[in-house]
UniProtKB/TrEMBL annotation, chain A:
PROSITE patterns per the UniProt record, alphabetical: ABC_TRANSPORTER_1, ABC_TRANSPORTER_2
Any one GO cellular component localisation term in the record: plasma membrane
Membrane topology reported for the UniProt record: Peripheral membrane protein
Natural source organism: Sphaerimonospora thailandensis
Location relative to the cell: Cell membrane
Protein name: ABC transporter ATP-binding protein
Gene Ontology annotations of biological process type: response to antibiotic
PANTHER family: ABC TRANSPORTER ATP-BINDING PROTEIN, ABC TRANSPORTER ATP-BINDING PROTEIN NATA
Domain of life: Bacteria
Keywords tagged on the record: Antibiotic resistance, ATP-binding, Nucleotide-binding, Transport
UniProtKB/TrEMBL annotation, chain B:
Domain ABC-2 type transporter transmembrane: 21-347
Organism for this UniProt entry: Sphaerimonospora thailandensis
Bilayer disposition of the protein: Multi-pass membrane protein
Keyword 4Fe-4S: no
UniProt KW keywords: Cell membrane, Membrane, Transmembrane, Transmembrane helix
Name recorded for this polypeptide: ABC transporter permease
Length: 292, 371
């Protein structure tokens, strides 16, 4: 388990970037890290990767403080991508494999496998600067994955990808998570996070405002009742809890509290009940509620 | 350590594979060989061909390694043609009134003197007088090698200047490449800053050393091939080894400075500007070294040969240009080693703190004082 406990970081004299960030990611868990721009995601990830020093708090891996040797077994994709522009694809991936401790043969093998897996086979001999942005992004991913990392930390890995590339990347990450690797990634695409992640952490202004499994977050927000009554007299919902909205020209009652049986009874009285169901709040709604 | 060697390996491979590396090396070799041979090509010849008609070969004693080739002609007319065609430098025609020397235009003055002396000697000996040559002896400093030494020193200034300036420049470019492209952020998760910087300096140093060794070998090879090597002063092996050691020290110092300064900026365009203090120091060293090649025993050269980092260029030049006591070289070397160690520590500190701070140019003050 990767445990991040009470990180605090201040830049310069006044700029407080992190103000007590804590969360944990278990083996094989996909953790979505969401928050507005400037909330502190990148700073947190940089501290995890040892690129920044934290002022307070600590990062633990498998129960003990994370050190350099263990961190070499992590895979990292920084927010600002970086590759040697003039180095060839296969050579570059292999070089990073070597830096992460692979043998020459092991590094070449791992690079070849990834090149095949990520569809870069025709590009092995090209310099990175000659590749399209999408392909450069794939090389960047390969660099993060080449040493078969114990933990993956990816800062906005989906940004700038087309929908097909998003699916391909998601599949690769899920595959790694199934192999027991904790995967942390930050993203603004909340539907994507909702679809992929086992758990989610929401950060706002340097503080964690919510974290847990998606189900836990939902139940913390509370369930929501959605009722549609056809041919109801106007005003049928007066006196009932919740809001009456108009969606596609029909009145819809959304209620987050109150006795559902009582509401059902009132609806049946008012007319023909077309829809009556408990609805899950989307991550977007949870996010809005949490950072508000 | 392993990480550092991997980084160094990448630097070497990247450099050695470029066309620029070979072109640069070829140009330097041609330049050095050219300069080595220039005195021979443009100076007076030291081998002459003399035609003989009815006369004897003379025992000519020229200065240094002068050689004379004799060619006998059957009559004067053929010999005259050979002189005019340039096949021989002069022709000696024997006759009742003595020997006439024919040349195309006025005779090469050195050749004329040599022939005159040899002829006089031969006549005196023929008359039965025993002669003994004058024996010359210097009781002052040994100045036999002065000229060769100063020629070698000038060449050394040129070589050291190209390599000691050029190689740290590559270090600076590499540092900015990694900083500007933000690749350091990934690298630092698998290698420590000192490994990355150390590997880069080591790798490019090896590239510089390859250059130096090839250039020295070319120069020495040309000197041996052309016969110039007979003028080499004693202790030549020590002089050459000293050059290599001084290059390593000078390079280490300036590479550290280059890395520290370059880590302050994020774009290649800013490199030249931020390196100004270093390039100024280098040009100053170059100026003094140039002077030291000419006046190796002057006060300026002596003082500068002790002060790091000037000493890294001035001392080898001084030691080449004039015999210099070993203790002076060792003392100056020790001072330089201390300076290199201090600069490496300082540069490592600056680099580590500045290289992750992209964007606007980082001020040296900001990274030196803090923590
Ligand atoms: N190197 C830095 N110097 C000064 N302030 C910084 C630095 N890095 C980040 N910050 C500030 O810290 C806050 C958090 O930034 P960041 O972690 O990049 O947020 P996110 O990745 O969530 O968008 C922001 O207000 C940002 O301006
Ligand atoms: Mg960010």
């Amino acid at each position: 388990m990767l445990q991040i406990t009470d990180l605090r970081k201040t830049f310069g004299a006044a700029k407080r970037a992190l103000d007590g960030v804590s969360f944990a990611v278990r083996q094989g868990e996909m953790f979505g890290f969401v928050g507005a721009n400037g909330a502190g995601k990148t700073t947190t990830m940089r501290i995890v990767m040892g690129v920044l020093q934290t002022d307070e708090g600590e990062v633990r891996w498998k129960g003990s403080p994370l050190d350099f040797t263990e961190r070499r077994r992590f895979g990292y994709m920084p927010e600002e991508r970086g590759l040697y522009q003039k180095m060839k694809v296969a050579e570059q991936i292999g070089y990073f494999g070597r830096l992460h401790g692979l043998s020459p043969v092991g590094a070449r093998k791992a690079a070849d496998e990834l090149i095949e897996r990520l569809g870069l086979t025709e590009r092995v001999g090209d310099a990175v600067e000659a590749l399209s942005l999408g392909n450069q992004q794939r090389v960047q991913l390969a660099v993060a994955l080449v040493h078969d990392p114990d933990v993956l930390v990816l800062d906005e890995p989906f940004s700038g990808l087309d929908p097909l590339a998003v699916d391909a990347l998601a599949e690769v990450l899920q595959e790694r998570a199934r192999g027991g690797v904790p995967v942390i990634f930050s993203s603004h695409q909340l539907e994507l996070v909702e679809r992929l992640c086992d758990s989610v952490g929401i950060i706002s202004a340097g503080q964690m405002v919510a974290s847990g499994t998606v189900d836990e977050l939902r139940s913390s927000v509370g369930r929501r009742l959605r009722v549609v009554v056809a041919e109801a007299k106007s005003g049928w919902a007066d006196g009932l809890p919740g809001d009456l909205r108009v969606e596609n020209g029909r009145e819809v009652l959304i209620a987050t509290d109150g006795d559902d049986q009582h509401i059902l009874h009132a609806a049946v009285q008012a007319g023909r009940v077309e829809h009556f169901g408990v609805e899950q709040p989307t991550l977007t709604e949870i996010f809005r509620g949490a950072v508000a | 350590m392993n990480g550092m060697l991997l980084v160094a390996g990448r630097e070497i491979r990247t450099q050695v594979r470029t066309k620029g590396f070979f072109v640069g090396l070829a140009v330097t070799v041609v330049l050095i060989v050219g300069i080595t041979l220039a005195p021979k090509l443009f100076g007076g010849p030291d081998s002459y061909t003399i035609g003989l008609v009815n006369s004897q070969e003379l025992a000519v004693h020229g200065g240094g390694d002068t050689e004379i080739e004799w060619r006998t002609f059957s009559d004067e007319a053929t010999a005259r043609r050979a002189v005019l065609d340039g096949d021989v430098d002069a022709a000696m025609i024997g006759g009742t009134a003595g020997i006439r020397v024919l040349s195309d235009g006025e005779i090469d003055s050195e050749l004329g003197l040599m022939l005159q002396a040899a002829h006089r000697e031969a006549q005196i000996q023929a008359a039965g007088v025993r002669t003994t040559p004058l024996s010359m002896e210097s009781i002052g400093a040994d100045t036999r090698y002065e000229e060769t030494r100063s020629q070698m020193a000038f060449m050394l200034v040129l070589i050291l200047f190209m390599l000691v300036v050029g190689t740290p420049m590559m270090v600076a470019m590499g540092v900015v490449e990694e900083k500007g492209s933000r690749i350091v952020e990934i690298l630092f998760t698998s290698v420590r800053p000192w490994q990355l910087l150390g590997g880069k300096v080591l790798g490019l140093g090896v590239v510089g050393l390859i250059n130096l060794v090839v250039v020295l070998a070319a120069g020495l090879g040309a000197a041996f091939a052309s016969g110039l090597a007979v003028d080499f002063p004693p202790g030549m092996a020590g002089i050459v080894a000293g050059i290599v050691v001084w290059f390593v020290l000078g390079y280490a110092f300036f590479a550290a400075v280059a890395a520290a300064l370059a880590s302050l900026v994020s774009r290649q365009e800013e490199v030249g500007n931020v390196l100004t203090p270093m390039t100024m120091t280098m040009f100053a060293s170059y100026g003094v070294a140039f002077f030291a090649a000419k006046e190796p025993t002057s006060l300026v050269a002596t003082i500068a040969s002790y002060v790091p980092p000037f000493s890294s260029m001035v001392m080898p030049v001084r030691a080449t240009a004039a015999a210099t006591p070993a203790w002076e070289i060792l003392l100056s070397g020790a001072l330089m080693v201390v300076a290199v160690a201090a600069m490496v520590l300082f540069a490592g500190r600056v680099y580590e703190r500045a290289v992750l701070r992209t964007g606007a140019r980082v001020r040296l003050r900001e990274v030196v004082g803090s923590r």
